[in-house]
Amino acid sequence: MSAAARVAGLTTSPIRAIAAGAPADAISLALGEPGWDFPSVARESLAAWSATVQQCAYGPNTGIPDLTTALVDYTGVDADQIMVTAGSQAGMFAVFQAHVEPGSQVLIPDPGFPAYETLATLAGATAIRYPLGTAHELDANSLINALNSASRPSLVVIGHPANPTGGAASAQMLNRVAQHCDQRGVPLLSDEVYRELWLDHLQPSVREVSKTALVLESVSKGWAAPGLRVGWVTGPATLLAPARLIHNAMNTAPARPSQIAAAALVSHSAEVLTESRDQVRARWEVLANSPLALHSARRAQAGFYHWLELPPGQ
Ligand SMILES: Cc1ncc(COP(=O)(O)O)c(C=O)c1O
User: CB-based contacts of 140: which residues, under 8 Å, 6+ apart?
Assistant: First the structure.
C-alpha cells in the first residue's frame, strides 16, 4: 500500500538530517532554536501544576483561560481574534487548509521559510515566489506585481523579520501589501515569530496597520520554548473560525502543561523577552568579533539567522 498522492515529494527536513548526523560534541547551527535556558517562570509554573494536579484533562479548544488572558494583554486584540495552536506551525497548517483551495496559488517570499511551499503543496495549490528587496526587506512592489499576475491567488504569506535572511518590513510596505490584499479579497498571513528577538529596535507588526491580516506568533523563539509547541494566530474571527475547525480536527487542543507554561511566559513577557534579546545580542557580538570568515555586509534586524551570500560564481 502506498501513501496518498499528496505526500509524494514530501521529504524530512535536510536541516533535521544534519542535526541528527552531527557528532555529540558539535556546536549545532542546524535547527532554528534558542540555545539559552528555558525561563525559570515556566519551570516554576510547571512544577506548581504537577505538584497539585489530580487529573490531566483535555484543555478547551480555544486555549486555557490563563493563556488567552495573557495573549489578549500581549496582542491587544479580543479573545475571539486569537487562535491558540500547537506551535505556529500548526497555526500555519490550519490557515492553509482552511483558506487555500486546490488549484489556487499561494504567494510566498523568496528566500523564505521552506514550510510555506510545503503547506501550499499539501493544500493542492502552487507556490508563487516573490523576491525580497536588496536588503532582504519586504518589497511591496515586487509582491504586488506577483499578486497581480496570479490568476487564482488564495493566500499571501509574508515573513518578517525573515527566516533565513533576518530582513524586515517597514510599516509603509506592510500597509501597502495589506491594502492590496484587501482590494483583491485575498487573505494575508504575516509570520512574525522572530519579531521579539530584535537587535536595534522592534520592527512593526502588520497588526498595527491592518484589521484583516492574520498574524502568526509563538513562544518558540522569543520566549525560548520551542519544545512546548505553543503558538497563536490573531486575526478576524471569521477567518479564524474555519482554521479552528482544522486545528481541532488535528490537535484537539495544545497540551495542557504546555499551555500552563506558555501562560507564565507570556504574562512575564517583559523579563523573559529582555533576557532573550540579551542572549541573541551576545551571540551576534561573538560573530562580529570572530576571526572566521562568517561576515556578510548585512546583519539581521532580528532573530538568530545569518544569511551569507555566496561569492559570485559559486
Ligand atoms: C519563520 C518561521 N515560522 C514558523 C516557524 C514554526 O515555529 P513553531 O511551530 O515552533 O512556532 C519557524 C520555525 O523554525 C520559522 O522559522
Answer: 172, 173, 176, 177, 180
Closest CA to 189 of 177, 197, 171, 198: 177
Q: Which of 85, 95, 193, 265 has most ligand 1 atoms within 8 Å of CB, for mutation?
A: 193
* Structural domain contains residue 18: no
Q: Domain containing 234 — which CATH number?
A: 3.40.640.10
Answer yes or no: is 286 within a domain.
no
Q: Which domain holds residue 191?
A: 41-49+60-267
How far apart are alpha carbons 138 and 159 in whole angstroms?
Answer: 8
Residue 54 lies inside a defined structural domain of this protein: no
DSSP SS3 for 194: coil
Pocket of ligand 1 from Cβ distances under 6 Å: 32, 87-89, 113, 159, 163, 191, 193, 218, 220, 226, 231
Pocket test for ligand 1, best of 117, 163, 219, 233 (most atoms within 8 A of CB): 163
Residue 287 inside a domain? The answer is no
pLDDT class of 312 with cuts at 50, 70, 90:
confident
Of all protein residues, whose CA lies closest to atom 14 belonging to ligand 1?
32
Q: How confident is the model at residue 297, as a pLDDT?
A: 62
pLDDT tens for each residue of 98-148: 999 999 999 999 999 999 999 999 999 999 999 999 989 999 999 999 999
Structural domain count, the chain: 1
Three-state secondary structure call for residue 123: coil
Residue of 29, 71, 88 to mutate, ligand 1, most atoms within 8 A of C-beta:
88
Q: Yes or no: say if 247 and 220 are a contact pair by the CB < 8 Å rule.
A: no
The kind and range of the H/E element at 188 are strand 188-191
Name the CA radius of gyration of the chain, rounded. 20
Residue-wise pLDDT for 58-81, tens only, equals 989 899 999 999 999 999 999 999
Kindly give the distance from the C-alpha atom of residue 231 to the centroid of ligand 1, in angstroms, as a whole number. Answer: 9
